[in-house]
Amino acid sequence: MIVGVPDETATDETRVALTPPVAEKLVERDVEVCVASGAGEGSDWADDDYRDVGCDVIDDREAVFERADVICQVRGLAANEGEPMDPYYEGQIVVGTLGPFDLADESYDALADRRVSAFALELMPRISRAQSMDVLSSMASIGGYKATLVAAEQLPKLFPLEMTAAGTVRPAEVFVIGAGVAGLKAIATAERLGASVRGYDIRLEVKQEVESLGADFVELDLETEGSGDDEGYAVEMGEEFYEQQRKELGRVVPESDVVITTAAIPGAPAPELVSAEMIEGMDDGSVIVDLSAPTGGNCEPTVAGETVEHEGVTVFGPTNLPATVAHTASQLFANNLYNFLDHLLDEGELDLDTDDEIVDSTLLTHDGRIRRPHEDGGEEPADDETDDGDAEPAEGEADA
């Protein structure tokens, strides 16, 4: 089996799917690894680093696709927004973040026509044996950490309490909205920097996690039953709920020097939680970092990929903070990806068993079929099957 690592084509992407230490583990298992020249430069891995561990470095990017049985990418398909589909060939396996919620029907059709098996790692189920493969959690942790540093650098105040001969410096007030992986990391980082930190989430069950990090949990007078799904993700609530939530948040946001928002719903626009009116109540020089900017943002003035100023408050709308910590982010991503491949490897080949929950949850297309595991309706029939009900169900289809 040959694993290929092309260089990433998105302009803001500096990560690489496999680092040399992780590639070496594959080589030691008699898996060939070919890497596009320069693929690791953005994350401080030179071509010679790959050669030293037994990888074949190829100058021509397209040659990686032609040669490899398995393509490993940080961002492919819809996750590589604005770029044409890469030249996947017949029967190839693709593993990476692929943007399944935004993938167009034409892309699904093209993958099925080429009989590509496409694994979207964003759809990794939240079960204990898949934790080591969870790229979303790994990247969200880095995003939460970096969001706090961005805010600390921009804020014209110190984060920690300082008792000095010149007087007492009060700690910065940091408010984190959303207590998932990114939010909890932002809370932990702000606490380490000495700020006075508060956290909020519509899921009251995370209160203990927030408080265990030393922050105060903000409880709003809201009915939150049904706000989380079985996997721990927040679910979309009605507009009446969000309107009441904004009223409640309106008394907390203006008291804050820094607001970091992380509230996101898989496959849906981010809920707008912080209004322009709330921001106008904040002191001049205050900072907002909106980590939900890629899906519309939690703050009314947020512009994805831009930094704007609203009534003296700086609002950051970053879209790829993990890429600003590329070396560490690549290490974590590569480890997640290796653990996924290790789960599938059987005597040097990948065993795509759709009865396995990890495979079933992440496999978008396979053997000419469009599966869409993240959508209601399940697997679509292959083009060569009739609609008269006589066709035999595909593997796993009967159970669905």
From TrEMBL:
EC category: translocase
Keywords: NAD, NADP, Nucleotide-binding, Translocase
Source superkingdom: Archaea
Segments forming domain Alanine dehydrogenase/pyridine nucleotide transhydrogenase NAD(H)-binding: 152-317
Alanine dehydrogenase/pyridine nucleotide transhydrogenase N-terminal domain: residues covered: 4-143
Region called Disordered, residue ranges: 363-400
GO molecular function: NADP binding; oxidoreductase activity; proton-translocating NAD(P)+ transhydrogenase activity
Any one GO BP annotation for this protein: NADPH regeneration
SMART domains in UniProt: AlaDh_PNT_C, AlaDh_PNT_N
EC number: 7.1.1.1
Reaction catalysed by this enzyme: NAD(+) + NADPH + H(+)(in) = NADH + NADP(+) + H(+)(out)
CDD domains assigned: Rubrum_tdh (cd05304)
Basic and acidic residues bias (residue ranges): 366-376
PANTHER family for the chain: NAD(P) TRANSHYDROGENASE (PTHR10160), PROTON-TRANSLOCATING NAD(P)(+) TRANSHYDROGENASE (PTHR10160:SF19)
Name this polypeptide is given: proton-translocating NAD(P)(+) transhydrogenase
Species per Swiss-Prot/TrEMBL record: Haloplanus salinus
